[in-house]
Amino acid sequence: MKLIILDRDGVINQDSDAFVKSPDEWVALPGSLTAIARLTQAGYTVAVATNQSGLARGLFDTATLNAIHAKLHREVAQAGGAVSAIFLCPHGPKAGCTCRKPLPGMYYDIARRYDVNLNGVPAVGDSLRDLQAAATAGCAPWLVLTGNGAKAQQGELPPGTRVATDLSAVVDALLQEA
Ligand SMILES: [Mg+2]
Ligand SMILES: [Zn+2]
Fold first, then answer.
1. Does 7 qualify as catalytic in the annotation?
2. How far does residue 177's CA lie from ligand 1's centre (Å)?
3. Would you say the C-alpha torsion 82, 42, 135, 17 has a positive or negative sign?
């Protein structure tokens, strides 16, 4: 199977320093839904891995997060694509969990769920911690310059990280190489 792993905030939708706390605050980035649709139509299984510490911080509850993700799935479907599953870390930074990026726990969960080897699986993020988690798990890290991406670009990127303007540009490159 062809698998791709996407971060959510700053890759698919606008990020917010104040957290995305409601369906209304979840706003797709220009071109991201179409980019996912192109992946789906090219045979990719699209999985999302997202830190959602807003749950631990009490900024929103699980029902609200489910409603946000229902909107995500609905808008992706309307664009002609599909997100197979959304993996999330609900913990805060001090919980000591193994799923919060930059740790790779969610990526390993994804590998188990789909029974795939992650070597070379593209993993797209806008923050250094996405790329670190991806690299640790053996994925091929891609940095997009949407969301926090411009800031992250100034940090020390894991070796082999590729940089693209946005998710559409990642998809352009992947489909061109296929
Ligand atoms: Mg992000
Ligand atoms: Zn966690």
1. yes
2. 25
3. negative
**Domain 2-177 in CATH: superfamily?**
HAD superfamily/HAD-like (3.40.50.1000)
Q: What is the pTM of this model?
A: 0.98
The whole-angstrom separation of Cα 7 and Cα 5 is 7
Q: What would the pLDDT profile of 23-51 be if each residue is shown by its tens digit?
A: 999 999 999 999 999 999 999 999 999 99
115 CA distance to ligand 1 centroid (A)?
25
Distance CA 75, CA 85 (A): 15
Q: Using the structure block, give the residue that is written with the tokens 């071109």.
A: 31
State yes or no: is 9 an active-site residue.
yes
CA distances from 29 to 33, 95, 157, 165 (A): 8, 30, 23, 12
| DSSP letter string, the chain | -EEEEE-SBTTTB---TT---SGGG--BPTTHHHHHHHHHHTTEEEEEEEE-TTTTTTSS-HHHHHHHHHHHHHHHHHTT----EEEEE---TTS--SSSTTS-HHHHHHHHHHT---TT-EEEESSHHHHHHHHHTT-EEEEESTTTHHHHTTS-PPTT-EEESSHHHHHHHHHHH-
Taking a 5 Å cut-off on Cβ, the residues next to ion ligand 2 are 89, 91, 97, 99-100
Please give the single-letter amino acid code of residue 124.
V
